[in-house]
Each structure stands twice: as structure tokens, then as C-alpha cells.
Design a protein that fits this description.
Length: 283
Amino acid sequence: MIAESTLQGIVDALKAGQTPSVDPELVPCFSAAALAHSPIIRQEHLAQILAGLTQDDIPALERAIASLRVNDQAWLGFKIVYDAQACMRPDNQSFDLGPSEDDKSTLFFANEAKDIVCSRPWNKRDRKQMLDCTRGPSMHVDQFEGVTWCSVPLFSTQRVVIYGAGEVSTFLERYCQDCGFDTLVIDDDPAFLTQERFPASERVFVNADWSDLSKVERVHMGSDGEACYLGGFLRIGADRDANIDPFHVNRKVMSCFGPDAREISNNILGMVIDGYAAEAADC
């Protein structure tokens, strides 16, 4: 979550007629960890967006500050235009939405009620992407050439605890982060639980027999209800360490296995349920 002081600093600079300057690490979607898997977005894009802001952008920032203060379900979003010609090309369209309305990078405010505050012109296609990159898992951000999108929540995020630092868990960290959750990964092997493998997570080492799990606070999420993912596997039951959106995360986890994902995923789940978790982990 971005700090109120960071947003207020941008507002103050704009009111003083100055170009705002912000450390990208203070804006979570532009942090080095967040961009580790991004083929397009770079930390320099934040400086470019800030350099293009005017006092007309203050309402969006002040709306963001107001939401931050009351922990509202809202986001500060960023439109990043990396190829202006492609962004505005007439044939760069889908579902009859046409090209983007504007070829400039900018920031905007959006909330769960689908309110949008943005100083730059935007159209139906832009609105679709503004809402797709906020309000839950960030989706379809690279759907059109020349432009991409990202956002930061203006409310406290919840945390998923991932037991085991195996290969599936590295994917699970990324997709939990994409869905707006903070992540904590637990393992007893420093060769697996590393900054390089889990750049966006808090990491907790336990002893070899995992008897000191008191280091980890139990987390109950209850966002969409039924599913609990531990070390990449789906468990059903009342005693849950984390409940996360089963549709988005299960889809992402299965995508790691290629075209036969559903059958493989079901086979692995069956092995876990039947008591063969160790064998399933070797699949």
C-alpha cells in the first residue's frame, strides 16, 4: 500500500508548480520486486508519469488520499504508454472498442463502485482497462499494443501464508501478489527460501521438523470462501490458514502445467487428499 505522505508530497509539489519526484520503491507497483516479471514496465516510467502531471491531476490524488484515510476499496492506477503510435493506431482494437482515447501516460483514481477520476481523456476501452487493472486481480493490462496498466491498492491488504518453498510456490507467490495479497513463505531449507526465488514475500525459516510454527501468525482471510492453498495445493476444510479466490489462483496454478493442466492438477490434488502429499510434491 502506498503511504499518504507519498501522495501528499506529489500534491504539494504540483501546487507549488514543481515536478514531483518519488522513489519507485515507495509505489508498490513500481518496486523492483513487482517489476521482476514485467516485460514492459520499468521504474523510469514512474518518473515519466510524474513529469507529465499538472495541477489538473490533483483531484485524482486528493480522492486517493481521502480513500486511504478511511481504508476504502479503491486504487491509484497508472496508464503507461510506451509506443504512442501503436496505442492510437486504428487497427489496434478488440471487441469494437477502437484505439485508446489518448496517447499520454497518466495516473487515475478508481474504486469498487467504478468511479474514475482522471485528468486525461479516456473512452470505453480505456475505462475497461482502468477497471481491469484495479478492483481485484490485475487482468488484461497488456491486451493492446503500445500501452499497459498497473495500480496500487489504497486499503490494507491481507496476507497468504505459503507452506513450502518449492517450485509451485514460486508461481503461487507471483499470482497471490497479482490478486492483491501480501505473501509470507515458510520453509526449513535456505537453499529454496531465498530472496531471488521469493522477491515479494516475507520469508520465515523454521527448524527441520517444523515444530516451531509458532513463529507464524495464523491468517484467516475469507475473501471468496471455500479454498485454502498450502504450498500450491488445494485443501478443503474448516481449519484454514488462508482463504483466497479459488477461481483466479487455481486457474493460474494450473496454467503452470501446460495444456494437460486440469487432469494433472486433479491427479495431484487426489494424491494429496489420499495422504500421498510427499509423492505429489515430487510430480
